[in-house]
Design goal:
This protein is of the alpha/beta class and 403 residues long. It folds into 2 domains: 3-111, no CATH class; 209-402, Vaccinia Virus protein VP39 (Rossmann fold), CATH 3.40.50.150. The protein is built from 21 helices and 9 strands. A 5-stranded parallel beta sheet has the order 7-6-5-8-9. A 4-stranded antiparallel beta sheet has the order 2-3-1-4.
């Protein structure tokens, strides 16, 4: 079997393992590679690119292929999404597959609007209610892979210095449009062994995630809570903005996620971060801080639809009923975090979703039940940090508008 045939066969096997979507696609793909250690670097790259191309374009590829069989989708993805010509595929295909692939190239199925942008019907309809004028632009933006964004640790270095050090090693990084600590990297360089990463001078963090920390705007002497800290990307930036002073609690229900924070925290040089595992929003650790906190960030569990460029499997794994369950949890988390605050404290609520049910509806529901809170102005707060970005009182970021 030649190299191309092996890679195509591996892609079909990987799709068979990933496409049931019983869990996150990146985890299923890691398990596949662990079980197929004989694959070379180029084959792994081909398989990973192919799997995510299928996840991004699953509906339209099935329509073109007229089947959801993994082998057929692998051939369709290779020819339609990965740019391989029929001549390049020829040696990897059986005679009947060659004829089918030629037919596939010429096929033009009549796609519905949702199929054409590779969204489930219910999500396409929901976007039509949320942002009707920009629905198509947003959906098409989701079909492109996300860029790789880095965040400089201002406690250790400057953006210019980090950029120069990366350039010296042949890594092209340009300043992000909005975050003063962000760098957007060209390509997919291996950074985990780079000295800046090992020293904690840079972290991988999307620009939108960085901007949230400027809405929290922590001060050095304050007590801050990151209520859903996860692996701590925002926690570490908050700690750096505090110059490692004050006290910053990183709450999360997942011991695994908090364990992932520990090596990052060690690299960061910060001493003001206190990771705390909580059972839920009613945990005693939460109750003991009631009325003592200056600022709280709730980056709530959500559908993740804002991250579809990076996690395209989410559009096939989430459902309308899941959104309702998430919204109930989001409302509980916001109310619990509000109980931590001193009079005059600040609560920042965020999701990686574009759906009003998870965003505006949660904020409006909270404000109607808490007359002692008022809506702040995101654009004003960002301008205080020298960030020119005005999407109204609420910060709304979209890939087709803001990258």
């Amino acid at each position: 079997m030649n190299t191309r045939a092996r890679a195509l066969a591996a892609l079909a096997d990987a799709l068979a393992a990933v496409l049931p979507l019983t869990g996150p696609a990146d985890g299923a793909l890691r398990d596949f590679f662990r079980a197929h250690r004989q694959l070379g670097q180029h084959e792994r790259a081909f398989v990973a690119d192919g799997v995510f191309a299928v996840l991004r374009r699953r509906r339209s590829l099935i329509a073109y292929a007229a089947t959801s069989a993994p082998r057929a989708l692998a051939i369709a993805a290779a020819s339609r999404e990965l740019g391989l010509s029929l001549r390049e595929l020829d040696d990897a295909l059986a005679p009947d597959e060659r004829a089918w692939a030629r037919e596939l190239k010429a096929r033009k199925p009549d796609l519905t609007p949702a199929e054409a942008v590779d969204l489930p019907d219910w999500l396409w309809d929901a976007l039509g209610k949320a942002i009707p004028a920009e629905r198509d632009a947003l959906a098409r933006a989701w079909l492109a892979p996300a860029p790789l964004d880095l965040r400089v640790n201002p406690f250790k270095t400057s953006r210019d210095a980090a950029r120069a050090a990366l350039a010296a090693d042949g890594i092209d990084a340009s300043p992000t449009p909005y975050s003063p600590f962000g760098l957007r990297v060209a390509g997919k360089p291996a950074l985990q062994r780079h000295r800046l990463f090992l020293d904690g001078a840079i972290e991988v963090q999307d620009e939108g995630s960085q901007l949230l920390c400027f809405l929290v705007a922590p001060k050095r002497s304050e007590m801050i809570v990151d209520f859903c800290a996860g692996a701590g990307g925002k926690t570490l930036l908050l700690g750096a903005l505090m110059r490692s002073q004050g006290r910053l609690y990183a709450f999360d229900v997942s011991p695994r996620r908090l364990a992932n924070l520990k090596p990052r925290l060690a690299r960061s040089g910060l001493s003001n971060v206190h990771p705390v595992r909580i059972a839920d929003e009613r945990d005693n650790h939460v109750k003991r801080l009631a009325g003592k906190i200056d600022r709280a960030l709730v980056d709530a569990p959500c559908s993740g639809f804002g991250t579809l460029r990076r996690n395209p499997d989410l559009k096939w794994r989430q459902s309308q009923s899941a959104i309702r369950e998430l919204a109930a949890k989001q409302a509980r988390l916001v109310a619990a975090a509000a109980g931590l605050l001193k009079p005059g404290g600040r609560l920042v609520y965020a999701t990686c979703s574009v759906l009003p049910d998870e965003n505006e509806a949660i904020v409006e529901g909270f404000l109607s039940a808490h007359s002692d809170f008022a809506l702040g102005d995101a654009a004003t707060e960002l301008s205080r940090a020298g960030i020119v970005l005005d999407t109204g009182p609420m910060l709304r970021l979209y890939p087709h508008r803001h990258g």
